[in-house]
């Protein structure tokens, strides 16, 4: 009887050791940041203004655009839907989105369990989530920098109460100049 118990404990310990060893191998996530494609410093990443009815005119790339031609209310709704879509990622606990033409400015706060960082894999996932709301989004500027996330959150909230998007444009452009736009 005692011999069977010791065998059972040995098998249990071996099983736990194997499970721990396999758990360490299970993550395929990159642990270092990958280089991101850079936007040409001479190119103005934003070229937009709001017309009198509050619709965005122009985009990061002329002719395409998430907010191009959308009313202020439609832009607000798209931003809210995009935030909800990004927050469905298990890595993200909070997201703030400001759509800018065919590019979106995204500030994220990571879930406690997530040990990674903003890398190309995460940017690609965020872009894919944004495209579930609007396929016209082709670029994304994602940051987890606390100061920039706070700025994007403030812009997102300002957009909710704005009477025109001109109120948000200048500040959004300043934040976007500090980030790299990721395109697929």
What features would you describe in this structure?
The protein has five helices and six strands, in the order H-E-E-H-E-E-H-E-H-H-E. The chain has 184 residues and is an alpha+beta fold. The longest helix has 25 residues. About 22% of the residues have low confidence.
Key features of this structure:
184 residues, alpha+beta, four-stranded mixed beta sheet, two-stranded antiparallel ribbon, 5 helices, 15% strand
Largest sheet: 4 strands, mixed
Which class best fits the helix and strand makeup? alpha+beta
Q: Any idea what the shape is?
A: elongated
**Percent helix:** 40-55%
**Tally of extended strands?**
6
Arrangement of strands in the largest sheet: 3-4-5-6
Run of helices and strands:
HEEHEEHEHHE
What is the number of helical segments per DSSP (H or I, 4+ residues)? Answer: 5
Strand content bin:
15-25%
Mean pLDDT: 75
**Regions with pLDDT < 50 over 5+ consecutive residues?**
27-66
Distance between the termini: 64 Å
Q: What Rg do the Cα atoms give?
A: 22 Å
Characterize this entry briefly.
The chain is α+β, with helices and mostly antiparallel strands. It contains five helices and six strands; from the N terminus they run αββαββαβααβ.
């Amino acid at each position: 009887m005692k011999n069977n118990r010791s065998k059972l404990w040995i098998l249990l310990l071996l099983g736990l050791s194997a499970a721990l060893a396999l758990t360490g191998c299970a993550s395929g996530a990159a642990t270092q940041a990958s280089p991101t494609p850079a936007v040409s410093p001479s190119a103005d990443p934003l070229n937009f203004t709001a017309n009198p009815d509050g619709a965005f005119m122009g985009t990061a790339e002329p002719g395409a655009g998430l907010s191009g031609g959308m009313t202020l209310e439609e832009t607000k709704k798209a931003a809210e839907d995009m935030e909800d879509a990004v927050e469905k990622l298990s890595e993200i606990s909070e997201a703030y989105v400001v759509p800018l033409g065919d590019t979106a400015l995204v500030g994220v706060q990571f879930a406690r369990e997530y040990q990674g960082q903003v890398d190309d894999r995460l940017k690609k996932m965020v872009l894919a989530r944004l495209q579930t709301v609007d396929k016209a989004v082709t670029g994304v500027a994602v940051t987890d920098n606390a100061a920039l996330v706070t700025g994007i959150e403030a812009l997102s909230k300002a957009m909710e109460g704005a009477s025109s998007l001109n109120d948000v444009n200048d500040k959004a452009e300043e934040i976007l100049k500090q980030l790299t736009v990721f395109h697929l």
